[in-house]
């Protein structure tokens, strides 16, 4: 879908400057001299709106897989994609075309972290995704909820965010407090000073590794450290940070 107001703005620009970036075509193997529009539908529609009968275009020879990749990349340039549509397109490029997050980021002009955070939205419970699609919450709210480990906690936090009409910063603060306050049964096992130590070390690891970290510590000093990652690239980044720490 294309927003009419955006098309009108682009058509006005095309009237003044013309179509600067050519459309991308591919010849149909079953119909010589006829072409698929691989990329540039938005520019083509705006050019028609501007009254242009001819627009610049280039013909590329490409496999069906390459054509699909080109179309997906072009689709990601649109400004009316929902957060989940964008996340699904990123995921397709990564999974079906074996592109790294860094490569996808380069192709669409975004940072690797932006691509990674977008794809993570697909791991949210369906209720949270529905709220995001219905614009009850924004992508910023959804990313804040991702920090909660349990889906049940995510849903409870979602209810609070919607009921109180919290903005993104308030939602992030809600999640932070949620993480800092252990469940009642854990509070009975850990004295307050140990809870503070656990939060302290979790925060230090999280700040250094840029990912979620859980620390379970027993009274005798033993315990378990869980480091979360969401892609092969995240795992490699964490490994490099740990190895670098060991060699410092």
Could you describe the 3D structure shown?
The chain is mainly alpha-helical. It has three domains: 4-120, Conserved hypothetical protein from pyrococcus furiosus pfu- 392566-001, ParB domain, CATH 3.90.1530.30; 124-181, Arc Repressor Mutant, subunit A (Orthogonal Bundle), CATH 1.10.10.2830; 185-248, no CATH class. Helix content is 60%, strand content 11%. It contains 13 helices and five strands. The chain has helices at residues 4-17, 41-49, 64-75, 83-96, 101-108, 112-120, 126-133, 139-145, 151-164, 168-180, 184-189, 192-209, 232-247, and strands at 23-28, 31-39, 57-59, 213-217, 223-227. Strands 2-1-3 form a three-stranded mixed sheet. It has a two-stranded antiparallel ribbon with strand order 4-5. Helix 8 runs parallel beside helix 10 (168-180). It is elongated. It starts with a helix and ends with a helix.
What labels would you give this structure?
two-stranded antiparallel sheet, 248 residues, 60% helix, Conserved hypothetical protein from pyrococcus furiosus pfu- 392566-001, ParB domain, mainly alpha, Arc Repressor Mutant, subunit A
Summed up:
The chain is mainly α. Helices cover 60% and strands 11% of the residues. The protein folds into 3 domains: 4-120, Conserved hypothetical protein from pyrococcus furiosus pfu- 392566-001, ParB domain; 124-181, Arc Repressor Mutant, subunit A (Orthogonal Bundle), CATH 1.10.10; 185-248, no CATH class.
């Amino acid at each position: 879908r294309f927003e009419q107001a955006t098309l009108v703005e682009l058509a006005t620009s095309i009237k003044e400057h013309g179509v600067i970036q050519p459309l991308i075509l591919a010849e149909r193997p079953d119909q010589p001299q006829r072409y698929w529009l691989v990329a540039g539908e938005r520019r083509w529609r705006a050019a028609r709106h501007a009254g242009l009968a001819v627009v610049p275009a280039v013909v590329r020879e490409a496999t069906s897989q390459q054509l699909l990749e080109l179309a997906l990349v072009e689709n990601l340039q649109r400004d009316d994609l929902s957060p989940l549509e964008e996340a699904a397109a990123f995921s397709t490029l990564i999974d079906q075309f074996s592109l790294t997050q860094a490569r996808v980021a380069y192709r669409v002009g975004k940072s690797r972290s932006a691509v990674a955070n977008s794809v993570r939205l697909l791991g949210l419970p369906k209720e949270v995704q529905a709220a995001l699609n219905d614009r009850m919450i924004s992508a910023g709210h959804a990313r804040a909820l991702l920090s909660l480990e349990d889906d049940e906690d995510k849903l409870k936090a979602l209810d609070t965010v919607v009921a109180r009409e919290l903005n993104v910063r308030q939602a992030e603060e809600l999640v932070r407090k949620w993480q800092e306050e252990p469940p009642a049964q854990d509070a009975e096992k850990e004295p307050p000073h140990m809870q503070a130590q656990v939060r302290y070390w979790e925060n230090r690891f999280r700040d250094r590794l840029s990912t979620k970290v859980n620390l379970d510590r027993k009274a005798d000093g033993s315990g378990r450290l869980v480091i979360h990652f969401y892609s092969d690239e995240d795992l490699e980044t964490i490994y490099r940070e740990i190895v670098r720490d060991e060699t410092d």
